[in-house]
# Entry
Amino acid sequence: MKRIDQKGTYLRLFLYPDNPGFFPPKDLLKGGVVKDGEEYVFVPWYLVVDDPNEVIKAYGIGKVMRWADIK
# Structure
């Protein structure tokens, strides 16, 4: 994330016990198995769902997270 003075980046750390409701439950973010040709491969959860923003928008992290186009 960019600093306010725009002179670099910083890391914002969110500790789970201090921020209830900020992160979605782990079972919501499980990946899935997809058939790729003749093989089955495991892919992350955000590639399995249609819109990752819809999945996490009810949680606090959805307000601060930005997605890059990874497909």
